[in-house]
Amino acid sequence: MAKVPVFYSFHFNNDVMRVQQIRNMGMIDGNEPVSKNDWETVKKSGSAAIEKWIDDNMKYKRCVVVLIGTDTNERPWVIHEIKKAWEDGRGLLGIHIHNLNCPNNGTCSKGKNPFHQFTFKKNGVVVVPPVYDPPASNAYNHIKNNLAAWVDAAIALRK
Hints:
CATH topology: Rossmann fold
Strand content: 15-25%
CATH architecture: 3-Layer(aba) Sandwich
Order of helices and strands: EHEHHEHEEEEH
Strand order of the largest sheet: 2-1-3-4-7
Distance between the termini: 19 Å
Number of helices: 5
Number of strands: 7
Structural class: alpha/beta
């Protein structure tokens, strides 16, 4: 199976170490990680620069995977990325990552589903992007074993 190019959307400060674990699985072709220094430079350049960075990095991606940590649903740029993904016709899915062990902070509390802030429609019919909640006992392997299929299903949902 070919690796599908995806864009990961997440709260950088809280969840970057958990996100890195998912990127390192190698199950799909995710965007390259951005360093904290690079992200801070983009943020300091203002809203237009952030939107351009998102546009440039989301270009040619077939799916947006929202990695849901404790505060992800409150992050304005995550909300922007979700909206853009849907408007651009990309696959869209969410994965709760609170049960992945961060080397610095351990696990965290489960965050709210950020998709609940939207009403997604396809041909006039309400569509609900899937959100997965891997079990605490085996979150890493559950994500690794299912990620590619989840991405394929999210892309198929948009066709």
